[in-house]
Amino acid sequence: xxxxxxKLGYAYNALExxxxxxxxxxxxxKHHQAYIDKLNTALSAYPxxxxxxxxxxxITLNRVPKKIRTAVKNNAGGHLNHSFFWLLLKKNTKPKARxxxxxxxxxxNFDNFKQKFTQSSLTLFxxxxxxxxxxxxxxxxxxxxxxxxxxxxxxxxxxxxxxLWEHAYYLKxxxxxxxxxxxFFNVINxxxxxxxxxxxxxxxxxxxx
Length: 209
Ligand code: MN3
Description:
Shape: globular
Radius of gyration: 17 Å
Largest sheet: 3 strands, antiparallel
CATH architecture of the largest domain: 3-Layer(bab) Sandwich
Distance between the termini: 22 Å
Strand order of the largest sheet: 2-1-3
Bound molecules: manganese (III) ion
Order of helices and strands: HHHHHHEEEHHH
Strand content: 5-15%
CATH class of the largest domain: Alpha Beta
Structural class: mainly alpha
Number of domains: 2
CATH topology of the largest domain: minor pseudopilin epsh fold
CATH superfamily of the largest domain: Iron/manganese superoxide dismutase, C-terminal domain
């Protein structure tokens, strides 16, 4: 099995003016594709690893031969994170249902959540991601990871993610990470976030992650 670039499911300009067409196109067809190409290259001599689901590959990273472990960590991580991220983007949805209830319960109210998520994103040094995760003890938490690391490595299940690599925003926002984070809050697909939360609760109760 060769890993392949997933379809975006919407047009490259669908998130304008918040995330611009050019950024989306390069991000998807060049950056995401590059992780996939490098992952396929790293796995090419390992038929069994080639058949592994991308999530399993990340969760069981310590069983990947040392020789290719860093390449797999970075590029399987890049593939997994971006595949997850694309689904989280859509204009004109609103936080609702179980996830909103849980956000309010955990962070007091939605504005507090947004503020904390923004603050974490601004204090992350260099390239990485901000996450809303479900912890093994069934709590929502905001975390950050460097590079292309994924919270699954720490048994935390991703619910929401923001790509904070400069390639995700530099063409439009230059050094203004704050403006990019603000823009992101206009294109979060809350239907997907709610689904991710429901799925995470299911995985947690089955210990299936
Ligand atoms: Mn990216």
